[in-house]
TrEMBL record:
InterPro entries: G_AIG1, GIMA/IAN/Toc, P-loop_NTPase. It is found in: Membrane; Plastid, Chloroplast outer membrane. Residues 33-121 form the AIG1-type G domain. Its cofactor is Mg(2+). It comes from the Eukaryota. It comes from Rotaria socialis. The lineage of its organism: Eukaryota, Metazoa, Spiralia, Gnathifera, Rotifera. It is a single-pass membrane protein. The keyword Transcription does not apply. Belongs to the TRAFAC class TrmE-Era-EngA-EngB-Septin-like GTPase superfamily. AIG1/Toc34/Toc159-like paraseptin GTPase family. IAN subfamily. GO terms for biological process: protein transport. Residues 209-257 form a coiled coil. This is AIG1-type G domain-containing protein. Pfam families: AIG1.
């Protein structure tokens, strides 16, 4: 929607289109500002097939990848939720986990974007805001989004296929939302430093644990090699003892036949 509001829409699905974190840069011509945007898999995501549900660990690992790339200062963190799907208690739990890892201060850089609103007028949007304020699940996190609640949309797939004449009004709404979101992105906000958060400490601990595990694995390899050497020596000893027994047996047979071995 930000880069090409005229893009041909695709059919809706229940799962996030983003499979892995996508790192992109865009130049805003009139202000000569470069926007570095990280599109992550959906935090608020549901699916009927358990194997396709992306758990919160994926989101956390995405943040760790940002730290690896030295992308440690976030200007704006946008949480997107579809107006169709809404917000449930699992979404709230995910957000609380996110806040737990990054700290309370991440609230200053966070906003909520309600998507699929290309057909919603101002009256309907005001109703959505009110419903959010009164929603049992949303109330505990309502104050988290210091950068506000915003709306966005894209050309409706069904209208594009069956009623293209209705797209003009949608496009006007999309362009207005797009302008407001771009203005939000260009707002002078003190960036949030991920390096100062709990997740950075956890990541360092994970690195330390990984190194210790490598040392343990190396010691285990040495131990296994030592055990194999001992087993090999035992086998050789057993083979030697077997040869000696055979020689003694042959000697006895020869002695029994009147032969001697000097």
């Amino acid at each position: 929607m930000l880069t090409d509001p005229t893009a041909e829409p695709i059919a809706l699905t229940l799962k996030s289109e983003t499979k892995d974190a996508d790192f992109s840069s865009f130049l805003v011509d009139d202000s000569r500002i470069v926007l570095n945007i990280i599109d992550t898999p959906g935090l608020f995501e549901t699916n009927t097939e358990e194997q396709q549900i992306r758990d919160n660990d994926t989101i956390i690992s995405t943040i760790q990848r940002c730290v690896n790339r030295e992308l440690t200062k976030f200007h704006l963190i946008c949480f997107c939720v579809s107006v169709i799907a809404g917000i449930n208690k699992e979404d709230v739990a995910s957000l609380k986990l996110f806040k737990e890892y990054l700290g309370e201060q991440v609230s200053s850089n966070s906003c909520l974007i309600i998507t699929r609103c290309e057909l919603k007028d101002e009256e309907e949007r005001a109703k959505i805001r009110k419903e959010l304020e009164e929603d049992t699940h949303f109330k505990p996190i309502a104050g988290f989004f210091s950068q506000g609640v915003h709306f966005s949309g894209s050309l409706d797939y069904d209208a594009y296929k069956s009623s293209p004449l209705t797209l003009e009004d949608q496009f006007d709404t999309i362009m207005q939302d797009r302008a407001q979101l771009i203005q939000l992105l260009l707002t002078d906000i003190k960036p949030f430093n991920v390096s100062n958060s709990l997740i950075s400490d956890l990541f360092q601990w994970q690195l330390l644990l990984a190194r210790k595990q490598e040392e343990i694995d190396l010691l285990q390899t040495d131990k296994n090699s030592y055990i194999n050497d001992i087993e090999l020596m035992k086998n050789k000893k057993q083979e030697q003892e077997l040869v000696i027994k055979k020689l003694k047996l042959e000697a006895r047979k020869q002695n029994g036949n009147g032969c001697t071995i000097s």
